[in-house]
Fold:
Amino acid sequence: MLALDNLMPIIDTHAHIYSPDETKYPVIEKPLRPPKGKGSLEGLREESRANGVRAVCAIQTSTFYRFDNRYILDSSKANPDWVAGVCTLDPDDPRSPSLLVRNAREYGVRGMRSIAAADKRLDHPGVRALWKTALDEGIVINVLTGPELTDQVDRLLRQFPALPVVLDHCFNPKAGPDLDPTVEKVLWLSRHHNLHAKLTFVGSSCVSSYPCTDLHDACLRIARAYGAERCVWGSDYPNGLWTPKVTYAEHLKIFTEALPFSQTEREAILGGTAQRLWFPNL
Structure:
């Protein structure tokens, strides 16, 4: 597997983990489950090592644990050399900013996935309080929303120009009539220099199987608008659940081989940008 000529480590910026111990880490009612026996931190370690991946961002699995971040917190604290935990907190809970401080200082969490409040607003006092805390604590925000909230993302980015923000899945553009309008909104936001594009949608939103050519043009347009120095790759592990058309290795191979990036661009997208955001000491 490609090691980028040993110049830059490969970093997976988007993996979900599921503990096999559901007594210690209880799940929500009607959880979205990965294939049986898949999705643990140990499984992620094996998969990432087998593919030459040096480090990962473990994203809180809200479809399994909702706002109970204990598995992410414990995994992050126990494995700081290769795991950057990304928690998810409830913007409607006034305790969430203090929880973010605790998660960062006691467990080494390096990111927070930001979602809309219960009233469907992202430009919301509870969201802004969490972004302010993230800025104070040196936490990277991963914003998860759809293109319908583009204007609200824009307003928040204008309010927090010094806060590193990553657009999770780039609004999930899918092949079809909504592809171009969605991509155009992602491109419109690229003028915010603190916003980064997570290019994970190529494997998760594709209609075709590997190498997912139906989304290559969208990916290239976004990468050119943001610049490789503001783009990151992520696997969407466990792939049997989140990218059923491609494996972990194939998802990575799209970016190491199939897309026509230069070596310098590959180094940034596959590791350099992520290292700067989450792993400065790697």
Observations:
- The chain has one domain: 4-23+46-278.
- The CA atoms of residues 80 and 278 lie 11 Å apart.
- The beta strands are 10-16, 53-59, 83-88, 111-114, 140-143, 165-167, 195-198, 231-232.
